[in-house]
Amino acid sequence: MQLKKLIPAKFRKNEVVIPVVRLSGVISTGGSAFKQNLSLASTAQVLAKAFAFKDAPVVAISVNSPGGSPVQSRLIYSRIRELAEEKDKKVLIFVEDVAASGGYMIALAGDEIIADETSIVGSIGVVAAGFGFDKAIEKLGIERRVYTAGKNKVGLDAFQPEKKADIDHVKKLQLDIHDIFINMVKERRGDRLVENKDTFTGMFWTGRPAKELGLIDGFGHMSTVLKERYGEKTKLKLVQPKRGFFGRTVPGVSISSEMTSAIASEFAGGILSAVEERSLWQRFGL
Asked: At CB < 8 A and 24+ separation, what contacts does 272-279 make?
């Protein structure tokens, strides 16, 4: 048994090694010293490593995300497709708890999307949310002072009453992003897609109705599916990024005394970020 481990995988009879990437979490450029969200920067290294497996017939990617930044979602999607074409690899996406909104946009990078029957899939739409504090500061007797050059420079200021013109502008931006998302779904799912009145409304589904709509291709779990397709001797190799202190992906960076205060200052912001992240997951009952 020990000698077998010394033999390169490509010389082991009937053994196939398949690289596995886990993309889990809210999609954004944000993060803290304690947690790294999904973004192109946090995933580029691990994706490149996975697609560098020369003899692997496929790259398996596990997606578990309620969404987030449409820009980062699209960048991750594009990077997966670029690597798949460059390395001539098939991509299998396996949905865990949820692949919704930006999470589903990433899943579209798969040649096939496989989910559990209880997975949450879809939410093909665009959302923007925030808070308004204008009434709160009025009650506290606080006067807001803002000086700008350009009448639209402080649109949607949380400390000022909403303006219809600002809301209308955001709606236009959302409709444009939504249109791009819809076109991606139609292009990637092709003839498999079965549209109905709810497909592109932001509605989400469990696995079975998602399959009926053509949003996914089938049901199954990664290890079982891959062994059925490539043989019982198939080995799954989890590809992970380098981790720094506190588990964050920080290649080549060590913790110094100067960084200690920075980590402390991130803590309060991290609490607010965690609340926002929790609300995204809770939207899907998770």
From this structure: 273/30, 273/32, 276/26, 277/25, 277/26, 277/37
Q: Which residue has the tokens 């691990």?
A: 46
Does any domain span residue 100? yes
pLDDT digits (tens, 9 = 90+) for 160-185: 667 777 677 777 888 889 999 999 99
Domain containing 245: what range?
Answer: 14-125+178-282
CATH of the domain at 106: 3.90.226.10
Distance in angstroms (rounded) separating the CA atoms of residues 22 and 141: 49
Q: How many CB atoms lie within 10 A of CB 111?
A: 14
The single-letter DSSP state of residue 39 is -
Amino acid at residue number 26? V
- For residue 225, give the 3-state DSSP assignment: helix
Hey, what are 185's tokens?
């779904």
In a domain, 172, yes or no: no
Residue 65 bridge partners (DSSP): 99
Residues 217-256: tens digit of each pLDDT: 999 999 999 999 999 999 999 999 876 545 554 433 333 4
In a domain, 223, yes or no: yes
- Establish how many alpha carbons lie within 13 A of residue 159's alpha carbon, considering only the half-sphere containing its beta carbon: 11
Q: Which residues pair with 219 in a beta bridge?
A: 115
Count of the separate structural domains present in the chain: 1
**pTM (two decimals):** 0.78
* Bridge partners of residue 238, in order along the sequence: 20
Q: What is residue 268's three-state secondary structure?
A: helix
Considering the domain boundaries, does residue 245 fall inside one?
Answer: yes
CB contact at 8 A, 33 and 248:
yes
Phi, psi dihedral angles at 59 (to 5 degrees): -110, 125
Query: Around Cβ 231, how many Cβ atoms within 10 Å?
Result: 11
